Amino acid sequence: MTTRTLITGGLVITAADETHADVLVEDGRIAAIAAPGTQEWTADRVLDATGKYVIPGGVDVHTHMELPFGGTFASDTFETGTRAAAWGGTTTIVDFAVQSKGQSLRAGLDAWYAKADGNCAIDYGFHMILSDVNERTLKEMDLLVEEGISSFKLFTAYPGVFFSDDGQILRAMQKASMNGGMIMMHAENGLAIDVLVEQALQRGETDPRHHGEVRKALLEAEATHRVIKLAQVAGAPVYVVHVSAQEAVAELSRARSEGLPVFGETCPQYLFLSTDNLAEPDFEGAKYVCSTPLRPKEHQAALWRGLRTDDLQVVSTDHCPFCFVGQKELGRGDFSKIPNGMPGVENRMDLLHQAVVDGHLSRRRWIELACAAPARMFGLYGKKGTLAPGADADVVIYDPHAEQVMSAKTHHMNVDYSAYEGKRVTGRVETVLSRGELVIDGREFVGRAGHGAYLARGTSQYLG
User: Fold this and answer.
1) How much is the pTM?
2) What are the backbone dihedrals phi and psi of residue 100, each rounded to the nearest 5 degrees, phi first?
């Protein structure tokens, strides 16, 4: 049985265009878009978007559902996390499957397939974390690209857990230069940071704010510079995740001005929060411990500028929630034991709309950063990230005038605090379709676990 849905009266916004139009959805895809009243369409269901925006579903290409970290697990499962994503207008996530040291990539990937299968409310794909680069895993990279896992994340941070040395990173980049894969880098000098952590703890500096102080901006910039040079040697593209420091943005800008295929993402926490949050009293600062860390407020201007000039192409969340009670508290008396990560998958689209309201971004740039560019970066564009005939009918009806106050009392993420508690924003998701099926209907969740389908991705559409 096919159902036809007609969305009428809204302002349709994509990265390329904004126009008043009606949108016809059929068989899970966008069938047609036409000027209001020019087509006599019949439909089983009509959604009135008068006075609202009609936008593509958000694409969040950096989430960590159920991630094991520091003796505990991220508190959102694929079920709770994808439901919360839908509430926030995101209809696609790309999560990170983890290769454990000594294991094959396949074993790590299969574990993530099993976690997600039958549990997701929205569509999902995977990147692969490489924590053990060797002859066998380098060969496996080719097989994964063929299977639709076309991006691989390596770390210059977390020695003993995820860390790869420069030689391993170079070898992975050389492999990617041949198979079309995209290397994603967590760029911080983890070996130097570990020295600073040890010295801070010896001095009795144990509070959450010291997490930010030891993970210095210069060590993010140094690692960013280094991975760009390694990528240049390998003849490979590189995508630097969660860029937080103005010095790191400068490294990306310089490389891009030289015409190198170097890309960067930032996250809402770096745009809206700062070291002031890490310094909140009574251990409250632990809520804001993530890596790369929050920076002093003066870094924000460089991040906003990078988003406007396209030196940063993507805003993702790095959603990796840990409850304050029982999880973040593991680091009382030792900031290095605080699980690294923050909740945000539900907040990204709204915070970026607030950036439109505040004059940081245009409406089309909002959609570019949150939907189109992430889809294009990771081989999903055309199917995801835009509203066009033939694209998946991942559609959000967005009320740009509704006001909301962000709070743990009202959010749907499985975590006991909000990083944006009490923040007042303008704009709110009203209705969400995923492949033509209603997931949020007028602020009511009508979706289901298992609707979400696995997405085999192509290679990056930024590399022609």
Assistant:
1) 0.98
2) -85, 150
